[in-house]
Amino acid sequence: MAELDGVYYKEIVEQALREFPNEACGLIAAEAGVPVRVYAMTNADASPATYRLDGKEQLKVFDELEDRGWDLWAIYHSHTHSEAYPSETDRRLAFYPDSRYLLLSVADREEPIMRSFFIREGEIEEEELTIT
């Protein structure tokens, strides 16, 4: 089970609504398994159907995580017109098997839905997610 502070959830929802109709994306860092920071990132695809973390931003964040002794807790992105479930593209491009993937559906912008998954070797495993 994963717990995400409501403040971080709100940050992600606000980013997704701001970037709509394109998908929003970013990373969440953790210290001792507890999320400590959301890194909103540029979707280099600038697309309503796909996302790609900006490479330079990603390297900068990974350097900061290493410097602070933090871990990558989650990779997140929004789905603008579909449910909060990994697409075939999401499954194919899941390169971090130890990280969870948070998907936020803003298909209904009044009632966003976030779900958590691990994607390992193309297999999708949902994890219970609690917003605290």
CATH top level assignment: Alpha Beta
Number of domains: 1
- Provide a count of the helices: 3
Let me know the average pLDDT.
97
Largest sheet: 6 strands, mixed
Low-confidence stretches: none
Oligomeric status of the shown chains? single chain
Can you count the beta strands? 8
* CATH fold call: Cytidine Deaminase, domain 2
Strand order of the largest sheet: 3-2-4-5-6-7
- Indicate the proportion of strand residues: 35-45%
Report the helical percentage.
25-40%
Radius of gyration: 14 Å
Structural class call reads: alpha/beta
- Output the CATH homologous superfamily: Cytidine Deaminase, domain 2
| Morphology call | globular
Keywords:
132 residues, alpha/beta, Cytidine Deaminase, domain 2, six-stranded mixed sheet, 3 helices, 8 strands, globular
Describe the protein.
With 132 residues, this protein is α/β, with parallel strands linked by helices. It has one domain (2-131): 3-Layer(aba) Sandwich (Cytidine Deaminase, domain 2), CATH 3.40.140. The protein is 25% helix and 37% strand. The protein has 3 helices and 8 strands, in the order E-H-E-E-H-E-H-E-E-E-E. It has helices spanning 6-19, 55-68, 88-92, and strands at residues 2-4, 25-31, 34-41, 71-79, 100-105, 113-120, 123-127, 129-131. The strands form 2 sheets. Strands 3-2-4-5-6-7 form a 6-stranded mixed beta sheet. The longest helix is centred in the N-terminal third of the chain and has 14 residues, at 6-19.
